[in-house]
Write a structure and sequence with these properties.
By secondary structure, the chain is an alpha/beta fold. The protein is built from two helices and three strands, in the order βαβαβ.
């Protein structure tokens, strides 16, 4: 558990790899680490796959869906910036 609070937390190329059942826990935790969070989320399927053929981007949502999901946890739109990669 972190015992520090930061001005800025970066979450780059992470959320699309988080299982959907874990996303709320992860998002809530990120906002406990800092005043502002910048997300860069890829909303396209990954080029690589797991050995079973499933895509490495296990949590694909539209830009609108990610925006709504992040807003649920941010408390305020001025606490985050959402950058989308396609």
């Amino acid at each position: 558990v972190w015992d520090q609070y930061f001005d800025l937390v970066l979450c780059i190329d992470v959320m699309e790899h988080i299982l959907k059942e874990d996303e709320d826990k992860i998002l809530a935790e990120l906002f406990t680490y800092g005043k502002h969070v910048i997300f860069n989320i890829d909303i396209s399927p990954a080029i690589k796959t797991f050995s079973d053929g499933s895509n490495l981007h296990v949590n694909l949502k539209s830009e609108e869906e990610w925006l709504a999901k992040v807003r649920e946890h941010a408390g305020s739109d001025n606490r985050f910036k959402l950058l989308i990669t396609k």
